[in-house]
Amino acid sequence: MSNAKTDSQMIKRLFIANRGEIAVRICKAAKKLGITSIQAYSEADADMLAVRLADEAVCVGPAQAAQSYLDGDKLVALAKEAGADAVHPGYGFLAESPDFARAVEAAGMRFVGPSGDVIERMGNKIAAREAAIAAGVPVVPGSVGSLAHIDDTLEQARAIGYPVMIKAAAGGGGRGIRIAENDDELRLLAPQAQSEAQAAFGDGSLYMEKVIRNARHIEVQILGDGESVVHCYERECSLQRRRQKVWEEAGAATLSDAVRDHLCQSAVDLARAVAYRGAGTLEYLYDDASEAFYFIEMNTRIQVEHPVSEMLTGIDLVAEMISVCGGAPLSISQDEIRRHGHAIEVRINAEDPMMQFMPFPGKVTGLSIPQGEGIRFDHFLYEGYQIPPFYDSLIGKLIVHADSRLAAIQKLEEALGGLEIEGLKTTSPLHLALAQDEDVKAGRFHTQWLEPWLDAGKLSQTQ
Known about the structure:
By secondary structure, the protein is of the alpha+beta class. The protein has 16 helices and 20 strands.
């Protein structure tokens, strides 16, 4: 991987305001860079792996996230008290909070990510859409500005053409989204989406886009230092359940070289237009039939699926974003970034896929991790560890790399066979079934493919 280095005068002590596998990942990057890591933890996470790996650890409150990992004022105060020079937010929690980023900076520390102003601009999907249009990046046909009165909403929907997708302007994770096929459904669903968005994000603003049937979800990984921007190619994330990604690949086998170049350059153009700093991802919908792509949103943070891009390019994305935060320029130029083979990541969740994906927190009574070239398991597990029931069910990510896509799928199947997490139910059986599916092997899927596959009982048929 790349040898990113920080300015030792800028960052000596890094406060990690997150938990789980991403906290472990950041700890390792800090160690690589010679930076002291200070791990935040809730009372429920006192014995998590990141606490054991970090140089120092600070309790930030009770198990409830609202009183610990989501309490920005407390996190800033504790980071300052611990003598941190910078704060890494990971993903989720406060990673995309412009107020948190500003508070970190106001306290005299550095925020490992873009500025609060950029987070605010690109985190709001309406503002991000406007920025994309200004940068010449194609967007899905949609509404102009935030939706207001229902009569105006209906008028815009008719102009766009049904079906339309109503979406929350703030937030993500599939919340605040509804699909309307006609006027009557739009009248019913728009207030529902607004209420859900207000409850989830504290912002009920909505906008609307035309639904592109059977689209693929393709995203571009970028890195910026506030002046220069490079891309680390694309990922395909079309295998989704309830709009949550479960399987990610780098690159996207469906793209021609010409489309790939155009797509990645559009991401660089948009990130450069907002003077982006740190790691970020621009997400697109892609239509196989027309080979057209449309920008939908930007994630102003490191992504769960970043390891596939690291395996594809050999670049340590987390180390790079810390280095940039320390004031260093990007350590790589675009012409130095190359694609090598194919990488796949699957998300291992503590859920029972045979019981409607019911969460399954429990104690890890045994752990066997597959080893070998091209196999990586990012996690926060150890034998005897009790998975707390208070947080997201993601417990690890199994990543494989091989010379070709089919070889990567075969390696994934073998690695899943060697991954044993005793005492828990996990989503490994789902990924094994997908790795054996002929449509998946052939790349014949889209964002709406997985749920009908599950509804048809395909998972139980493979057991």
